[in-house]
């Protein structure tokens, strides 16, 4: 009668032959006189169904999203098959597209880290070896590069009175860089400096970097060019003079100026709130008049100076 049996195995990782199959053959003395029950005849089939379970290495890889031309770090774990015991001092080999084969050694925790920058799509293969173990391997795929290139553009002044400025920053070497549509040079470290011409008024500045995979990064800046000196008003001024009372020694002056401007009077700063300024002046009671020098500086660094006299009334 034929029978069928299914065996399930869990390797122990001990390196020993854990299983073989044999059968008991009945001989004429087993069930007949002299009944040699203590000496049955075994016929072994182990040469056919012998399972040799040696100690093997299991490799596991943890990584970021791998992409061509993008730097990443692999964390590699090496364990013993079956027991899951960590395996220190295993030799680990890493190879892949554009990655020169690297030989590393696992630490006491069975781990090793390696930085890689694959050059194309494909896979990175990691192999682990150690004496008295069957080598193990694993691999991870390198996907399409979908990561935009790094693009850092240095800040520029929001206002100015210059008709040209330098736009500077840093990106990745090898990218195609344009500033307002004009190609710009990127050095081997990724740095760039581009001089651009500005017009009076609002000037948008568009910086774009495109890598070899077609990924784009864009930064948009803006600056306002103003070459007009600030307008101002000095309350109480008539023909360059401000009349003060005969015995007045403290005089409060005020007026208006372009928003955000700075105002000084004889070098002392005035208080400015948006477009309204005010300042307090001390005048010796014996002085018939006091010259005042006003300076107005707007946000674009344009300047206007104006001379006024405080004159005592008779």
Task: Kindly summarize this structure in a few lines.
By secondary structure, the chain is mainly β. Helices cover 1% and strands 51% of the residues.
Write the layout of secondary structure elements.
Blueprint: E1 17-19, E2 22-25, E3 41-44, H1 46-49, E4 51-52, E5 57-63, E6 72-80, E7 91-96, E8 99-105, E9 111-116, E10 122-129, E11 136-142, E12 151-153, E13 159-160, E14 164-171, E15 176-179, E16 182-184, E17 191-197, E18 201-210, E19 216-225, E20 232-234, E21 241-244, E22 250-257, E23 262-265, E24 268-269, E25 271-273, E26 276-282, E27 289-297, E28 303-312
Parallel strand pairs: 13-19, 21-28
Antiparallel strand pairs: 1-4, 2-3, 5-6, 6-9, 7-8, 7-10, 10-11, 12-14, 14-17, 15-16, 15-18, 18-19, 20-22, 22-26, 23-24, 23-27, 25-26, 27-28
Descriptive notes:
By secondary structure, the chain is mostly beta strands. It folds into four domains: 17-52, no CATH class; 57-142, Macroglobulin (MG2) domain (Immunoglobulin-like); 151-225, Sandwich (Immunoglobulin-like), CATH 2.60.40.10; 232-312, Immunoglobulins (Immunoglobulin-like, Sandwich), CATH 2.60.40. The chain has one helix and 28 strands. A five-stranded mixed beta sheet has the order 13-19-18-15-16, with no helix packed on it. The longest helix has 4 residues, at 46-49.
């Amino acid at each position: 009668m034929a029978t069928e049996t299914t065996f399930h195995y869990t390797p122990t990782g001990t390196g020993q032959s854990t299983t073989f199959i044999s059968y008991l053959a009945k001989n004429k003395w087993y069930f007949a006189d002299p009944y040699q029950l203590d000496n049955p005849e075994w016929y072994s089939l182990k040469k056919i169904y012998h399972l040799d379970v040696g100690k093997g290495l299991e490799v596991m890889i943890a990584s970021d999203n791998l992409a061509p031309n993008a730097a990443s770090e692999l964390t590699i774990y090496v364990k013993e098959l079956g027991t899951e015991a960590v395996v220190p001092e295993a030799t680990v080999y890493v190879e892949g597209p554009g990655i020169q084969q690297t030989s590393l050694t696992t630490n006491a925790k069975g781990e090793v880290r390696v930085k890689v920058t694959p050059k194309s799509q494909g896979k990175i293969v990691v192999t682990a070896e150690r004496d008295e173990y069957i080598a193990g391997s694993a691999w991870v795929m390198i996907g399409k590069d979908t990561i935009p290139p790094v693009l850092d553009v240095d800040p520029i002044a929001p206002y100015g009175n210059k008709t040209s400025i330098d736009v500077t920053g840093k990106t990745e070497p090898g990218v195609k860089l344009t500033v307002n549509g004009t190609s710009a040079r990127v050095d081997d470290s990724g740095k760039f400096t581009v001089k651009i011409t500005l017009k009076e008024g609002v000037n948008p500045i568009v910086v774009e970097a495109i890598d070899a995979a077609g990924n784009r990064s864009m930064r948009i800046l803006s600056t306002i060019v103003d070459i007009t000196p600030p307008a101002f008003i000095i309350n109480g001024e008539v023909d360059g003079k401000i009349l003060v009372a005969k015995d007045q020694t403290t005089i409060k002056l005020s007026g208006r100026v372009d928003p955000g401007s700075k105002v000084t009077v004889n070098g002392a700063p005035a208080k400015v709130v948006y477009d309204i300024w005010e300042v307090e002046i001390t005048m010796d009671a014996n002085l018939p008049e006091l010259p005042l020098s006003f300076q107005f500086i707007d946000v674009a660094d344009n300047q206007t100076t104006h001379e006024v006299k405080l004159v005592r009334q008779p």
